[in-house]
Amino acid sequence: MQVQRDLEEFEQRDAKVVAIGMGTGAEAAAMAERLELGFPLLGDPGHEAYDAFGLGRDGWYGLLVRPFLAHPLRATRDIADADLKASASPRSDVQRLGGVAIVDRDGALRYLRRAERSDDQPPNAELLAALDRL
What we know:
- The protein is 45% helix and 13% strand.
- It has helices spanning 2-5, 7-12, 25-35, 48-52, 60-70, 72-81, 84-87, 124-132, and strands at 19-21, 41-43, 99-103, 109-114.
- It is of the alpha+beta class.
- Helix 5 crosses helix 6.
- A two-stranded parallel sheet has the order 1-2. It has a two-stranded antiparallel ribbon with strand order 3-4.
């Protein structure tokens, strides 16, 4: 995960990084351990958080072809690094797009970026700047 690289920068801003995945809590904990994340990964088997933040789905062209056209090397690495076993889970939806949200201590949504493609991640600099504006 991209955030992992600059985790100290997020923590210096008193931000608590939390990721949400499509599996159960146990599946998410196992994946967090496997990926050696420095932050919690929570399970969302019913995709309620995805729905609450209005995160969409991508078509097969966007999932399989567009990443290779834009960044062939990165797309090849992403496929090689993919957890195909997790993708086969009945709770998984490989077409579901992700997003990044910043929620303040009072529970107010202060930043939301919905992915437009499967490989769409905001740069850490954008997220750190959003935190600096709070």
